[in-house]
Amino acid sequence: MTTDLDQLRTDLLGSIEAAAGLDAVEAVRVHALGKQGVVTGLLKTLGGMSPDERQAQGPRIHGLREAVTEALGARKHALEKATLDARLASETLDMTLPVDGIAPGSVHPVSQVMDELAEIFADLGFAVATGPEIEDDWHNFTALNIPESHPARAMHDTFYFPPEADGSQKYLLRTHTSPVQIRTMMQDEPPIRIIAPGRVYRSDSDATHTPMFHQIEGLVIDKGITLGHLKWTLETFLKAFFERDDIVLRLRPSYFPFTEPSAEVDVGFTWQNGKRVIGGDPRASDNGGWMEVLGSGMVHRKVIEAAGLDPNEWQGFAFGTGVDRLAMLKYGMDDLRAFFDGDLRWLRHYGFSALDVPTLSGGVGA
Q1: Which pLDDT belongs to residue 2?
Q2: Please, which pLDDT band fits residue 361 given cuts at 50, 70 and 90?
Q3: Least confident of 229-233, 243-247, 348-352
Q4: What is the pTM of this model?
Q5: How far is 184 from 359, CA to CA, in rounded Å?
Q6: Distance between CA atoms of 15 and 89, rounded to whole angstroms?
Q7: Residue 172: partners with Cβ closer than 8 Å, 6 or more residues away
Q8: 246 with 314: CB under 8 angstroms?
Q9: Taking a C-beta distance cutoff of 8 angstroms, is the pair 323, 218 a contact?
Q10: 3 state SS of 352
Q11: For residues 285 and 280, what is the distance between their CA atoms, to the nearest angstrom?
């Protein structure tokens, strides 16, 4: 047995050393270590040996397997290196030749719409404000006049973090960008004109809802602000965004805890070739209807007080809408989930060239 193992070891290692290519190395591996290989067969005999035989032959057979495995790896590495060295020695690259065209990236529709919104509101005198996405309960709810019993605090709507050990603070993923309004009012002196774009999080998922989505909110705090200022701002914004002068708005009474009075904002649309197109007055024909696009209202005096301002001196309005929803309406997309799937076909179809991003042609008129 000992002589046979020594001879087998010599034969296998010699075959590996003599292998002229990777295919030959693979053939030796199969012959030695494959399911029907000679070394594999020896390993199977260990089960039928007596304890004394197994103690004597086991280390030798396992040593043979390790030696063969190591030799196969070394020979494979040497052949691969020799192949690479031969290519490096024979192949040349002409550095004076023009490079192949590089596929450019694209601007995601959400990024494009964010830029459009910032452009519009900059023309209207609004600054961009940001805030943390991990918020505390006070900024996200309490300061916005949302009581403990409000459904927005329910676990099925909000992603909460585990409470602090002492129970003094509760953190969550912000459910809207409204906390940015509170932080701005507490940090800056009025008058204030800001938009607050960013990611927000809610426990919801279907064709028109995702657990993470993008929202933009606006806030104006000044003296003598009325609902008329709000309506003009929204009408001007939507005309510039959809690039149509025939935008018609309808404000419906609604309820939001942080505004009073509150209004849902609908925009008129018409049917064209079986598709809804924003624009036109639905009251003028039967070929149209209303679509909700915004929530808005006059800032509740309790919210102004929570931010440390005097509601008898300062008034304001606020509004908010989904950036993803605006992108869907303007650019004809029908499933919000596709925004976050990372499908290159979808991105190539709906994405915008990074070198030729369209801008709003008309801007905001005086």
Answers
A1: 54
A2: very low
A3: 348-352
A4: 0.67
A5: 29
A6: 28
A7: 134, 135, 136, 137, 140, 158, 159, 160, 161
A8: no
A9: no
A10: strand
A11: 9
